[in-house]
Amino acid sequence: MNEPLPKPSVTIPDLLAHQPIPDEGILTRTVFEAPHAKCVLFTFSAGQELSEHTASMPAVMHFLQGQAEVRLGGETVHAGPGSWVHMSSGCLHAIRTKTPVVMLLTLFRPAAN
After folding, report:
1. Contacts with 28 (C-beta within 8 Å, 6 or more apart), sequence order
2. Are strands 92-97 and 101-108 parallel, antiparallel or unpaired?
3. From CA 78, how far away is CA 64, in angstroms rounded?
4. What's the pTM?
């Protein structure tokens, strides 16, 4: 199956304003998708948790706003604005927000053969 090629460039003037933070819960929106990568914007209200799960492919979590605890395997790290976390495929991880959070998740797909 032939996938369409991404546009030569994509610009989002203000990622923090691109999606509202919900009063309760978690919202997600794909902001970029190409054969090699996918970027998903997450907005969380305070006190939300993504339960522990396994990264299906290498990924980066870039925290843009708010405070969270990130469990990576057996380690818990603090994430705040500007925090950047790389996960290898198979990495167990979970997120618990202390305040409203905006996070950009970038998934790196394997190269097609």
Report:
1. 40, 41, 42, 43
2. unpaired
3. 13
4. 0.89
Only one residue has tokens 């990622």, namely: 15
Q: Has residue 11 been placed in a domain? A: no
Q: Is residue 83 part of a domain?
A: yes
Question: Structural domain of residue 60, as residue ranges?
Answer: 23-108
CB atoms near residue 47 (< 10 Å)? 11
Structural domain contains residue 17:
no
CA angle 18/84/26 to nearest 5° reads: 45
User: Over the stretch 61-108, which tens digit does the pLDDT of each residue have?
Assistant: 999 999 999 999 889 999 999 999 999 999 999 999 999 999 999 999
- Detail the DSSP E strand segments found in 1-113: 26-34, 37-44, 49-54, 59-65, 68-72, 75-79, 84-87, 92-97, 101-108
